[in-house]
Amino acid sequence: MNILELSEQEIVRRGSLDEMRRMGIDPYPAALYPTDAYTTEIKETFSDDAPQREVCIAGRIMSRRIMGKASFMELQDSKGRIQVYISRDDLCPGEDKELYNVVFKKLLDIGDFVGVKGYVFRTQTGEISVHARELTVLSKSLRPLPIVKVKDGVTYDAFDDPELRYRRRYVDLVVNDQVKDIFIKRTKVFNSMRNYFNDHGYMEVETPILQSIPGGAAARPFITHHNALDIPLYLRIADELYLKRLIVGGFEGVYEFSKNFRNEGMDRTHNPEFTCMEIYVAYKDYNWMMDFTEKMLEKICLDVNGTTEVKVGDNTISFKAPFKRITMIDAIKEHTGIDIAGMDEEQLREVCRKLDIEADETMGKGKLIDEIFGEKCEGNYIQPTFIIDYPIEMSPLTKRHRNNPELTERFELMVNGKELANAYSELNDPIDQYERFVEQMRLAEKGDDEAMIIDKDFIRALEYGMPPTSGMGIGMDRLVMLMTGQTTIQEVLLFPQMRPEKVQPRDKEEAYTAIGVPAEWVAPLQKAGIMTVSQLAGANPGKIFQDLCGINKKFKLELKNPTQDDIKSWIAAVEQ
Predict the structure, then answer these.
(1) Taking the alpha carbons of 132, 134, 139, 142 in that order, is the dihedral positive or negative?
(2) pLDDT tens for each residue of 84-128
(3) In what order do the strands lie in the sheet with 410-415?
(4) In which band, very low, low, confident or very high, does the pLDDT at 558 lie, cut at 50, 70 and 90?
(5) Are 62 and 144 in contact (CB under 8 A)?
(6) Which among 45, 67, 284, 525 would be 20 to 30 A from 434, CA to CA?
(7) Where is the signal peptide, in residue numbers (predicted)?
(8) Phi first, then psi: what are they for 9, rounded to 5°?
């Protein structure tokens, strides 16, 4: 790496790295380090009356207070932090004091990983600490960490810029303790749900991510190409149709935590790559699934938070079962005063115009009703509410309602103004299913790029017979948002999708040498902010001269400084 690309601290740390190696210390040792304790466990089990306990711990240096013959540092492992007391003569009992005087005091930095062997004690100020007898360098950190200070419950110099936090999640996790807690809870959510399903006797399975037909949902897919087969493939938008095939095959209950991909917009609640759970259980209907779902969510909330209530923004949400249930048509009537029952496409367009809702020509009845509900109703449901009995045009994979053929046996669970779960009494009539796929293709021909494609193999599977089945999908990222009180999906994704980092344009070396700049001065010029030759036009030659001489001296480049006349000739060559 060019030294001019480094900050002063990075240069110093690389110098410390080289000095360690000259001293015979491997800054990145390969050998196992035999840790036998964690910081939190040490504190929780310490007793002043117990025999002295020897421990071997490892972690990252997060702060240091260097004094004369004794110092303190704060060590952070995967569980928490603990103070380490380091006495020069205990660490270096012989004549050689370099490990303390040079390595610890001068060559180690905040962010470095070290191992400590010693015993646990309580300091005179009452803080449980580890008295170090041995110190081992485990990994040298070449970039400085942000220094976050907390005093009297107030955080100073917080690492809180979302752009930086999401791009550099590895730093975010180190310096912001609450971030790690979110992802610990995320794992608890998954484990609780998985245990709930397993306890009911259902089986976890895996289905293809690359699919020849993007089915199971109405969404725009990502498209790729399989070179060996010379065919287009799609990243899955849902795993529904494959899981139903397994019900056809004889499994009674199957579920999958799947990574799904939808080539659509990004906002506070949407990421193009997201995690969904889908479960299908034979011989059940959507009424059973509502009972099953609300009990599951109540259990998850208790497992993760120890209570059935969570605070999300200004709202306190209760996951105590049972949840409210209301039909979609009644919900629209409740919030708009309009009864859309029995309306055709043109009447629904008139409703959209009346309610000032945008509706384009590609939208059929289902999309129009969805727009009305989304614009006027969805955001009102803060407490968990099942919206049930959707119009048939909105649900091409759902069984017709047993009492009204214009509706389907479907529910969506709304929480905090957003959809959390979607479930059906699954359509198992192959003829009806085929006709609805055909209707979807009609919408696609009108320009609806989210309409479903006919999956003929799925129709064939249904023709072999699928028992009555209920299925449910739940957005795991949104569920984690709720269980952790977060309001943006990026906070619960370890590595959310981001735009590429902006890179300042810079000319290649040849562009500079073409106007007379020696090759060895190109990098210093760019360090001085002249990233393109065009930036030389109208520049102050005296300032550039001072900048280049300063860079040459500061970074010890040992180059022969250019003259101001040299710089004037570069500028003149650009201005010609």
Answers:
(1) positive
(2) 999 999 999 999 999 999 999 999 999 999 999 999 999 999 999
(3) 203-204, 253-261, 273-282, 469-475, 418-425, 410-415, 385-388, 324-327
(4) very high
(5) no
(6) 284
(7) none
(8) -65, -40
**Predicted pLDDT of residue 475:** 95
189 and 476 Cβ atoms separated by less than 8 Å: yes
Residue 425 to residue 471: CA distance in whole angstroms: 7
How far apart are the two ends of the chain, measured CA to CA in Å?
Answer: 35
pLDDT at 151 over 80: no
3-state class of 435 per DSSP? Answer: helix
Q: What is the pLDDT of residue 1?
A: 55
**How far apart, in whole angstroms, are the C-alpha atoms of residue 510 and residue 551?**
21
| pLDDT of 329 higher than 60 | yes
Other residues' Cβ atoms within 10 Å of the Cβ of residue 235: 19
Higher pLDDT, 449 or 20: 20
Domain ranges of the chain: 1-144, 178-322+382-489, 507-573
DSSP string, 145-193: PP--EEETTEEES----HHHHHHTHHHHHHH-HHHHHHHHHHHHHHHHH
Q: Name the band, by pLDDT with cuts 50, 70 and 90, for residue 440.
A: confident
Per DSSP, what are the bridge partners of residue 135? 116
Q: Is 310 helix (H, G, I), strand (E, B) or coil?
A: strand
Establish whether domains 1-144 and 178-322+382-489 are of one fold: no
The DSSP result for 226-241, as a single string, is: ETTTTEEEEE-S--HH
Distance separating alpha carbons of residues 550 and 528, to the nearest angstrom: 10
pLDDT value at residue 452: 67
Contacts for 360-368: CB closer than 8 Å, 24+ residues apart: 361/446, 361/447, 362/443, 362/446, 362/447, 362/448, 363/448, 364/393, 364/439, 364/442, 364/443, 364/446, 364/448, 365/391, 365/393, 365/394, 366/391, 366/393, 366/394, 366/395, 367/394, 367/443, 367/448
Task: With CA atoms as reference, report the closest residue to 241 among 99, 428, 110.
Answer: 428
Q: Would you tell me how many other CB atoms lie within 10 Å of the CB of residue 271?
A: 20
Is the CB of residue 533 less than 8 Å from the CB of residue 515?
Answer: yes
Q: State the fold for domain 1-144.
A: OB fold (Dihydrolipoamide Acetyltransferase, E2P) (2.40.50)
Domain made up of 178-322+382-489: CATH architecture? 2-Layer Sandwich (3.30)
Q: Is-contact 261 237, C-beta < 8 A?
A: yes
**Is 412 a known ligand-binding residue?**
yes
CA distance 363 to 446: 8
Kind and range of the H or E run holding 43: helix 39-45
For residues 473 and 277, the answer to whether their CB atoms sit within 8 Å is yes
Angle at 210 between CA 259 and CA 453, to 5 degrees: 100
Q: What is the pLDDT of residues 4-42, one digit of tens each?
A: 989 999 999 999 999 999 999 999 999 999 999 999 999
Strand bridging mode 231-235 / 410-415: unpaired
